[in-house]
Design goal:
Oligomer: single chain
Largest sheet: 5 strands, mixed
CATH superfamily of the largest domain: ATPase, nucleotide binding domain
Number of strands: 12
Distance between the termini: 19 Å
Length: about 300
Amino acid sequence: MASTPDRSSRSIGVEISSASMRAVLLSPDGAVEKSTDVEILGSDDTVARLAEIVRDLQPAGEPIARIGVAIPGLVDRSSGRVAYSAIIPDHSEMQLGAAITEATGLDVVLENDANAAAYGEFCCGAGRGARDLFYATLGVGVGGAFIFDGEIWHGASGFAGEFGYVTINSEGMRLEDVASADNVVRRTRSRFHQDSTSSLGKLSEESLKLVDIIEAARSEDDFAQMMLGRTGHYVGTAIASVINLLNIERIVIGGTIMQAKKAVLNGIISRARELSFAPSFEATSIVAGELGPNAAAIGAAFIGREAA
């Protein structure tokens, strides 16, 4: 049966990425009371910085016994270790959960960052009111997560939702090969000089970043919008497979690239409509995430709270 988040206490959730850490303190009703975002120098700096953040966020007179931590990697739920992380490989070589517990004195629940973000959106974001949900995150990597009947679906070994590995053409090209941040920039550079009217032409190819493409698209730059629309087209191809196989109720798209919003989302919806079984497509709503960069930290806080 679907679970109802425990709303009786405050909770802390932390998302670890390769260069920064974001943490939130949630109120009993799930609102963000405090948040912080700090840079980290590398995997050696992670645990110490996390302990500092948790101490700063701990509410006075209301100690928190357990925290949720979202990480970019596959979590072995039987051991509580990171089984694999392409973004932070050192995490798979250490007892990350145990190290955090030792540094903070708190119990820790580790969760994949896409799963945590999906659960955050499900509890208090764009997934509110849904029973079943698929979440896709488009950022440094491409990830996915399923929620069925209110519960994260981890799969047989805990590794479900590797959306970036979905192949989108007959040559075996994976979605992550074209839709991750670096690959969106790469594809844009490859067509950089084909549109002399684009504001991006003022930049050098070497200096071009994803944020530049997003800002140009927001300013109605046709070339930037086209490149992000094509990204949405690729994502929509993979989304159609989810719709056709699962007849899923709601699909939420989050991650850094979704700062461009309609430029990407419209491409996703258009392509998914084209490739999906029509009755299943009509039963699905495809929406942008609402929690922005706090999604994974918020989801981790709910997960830690419920585990307690």
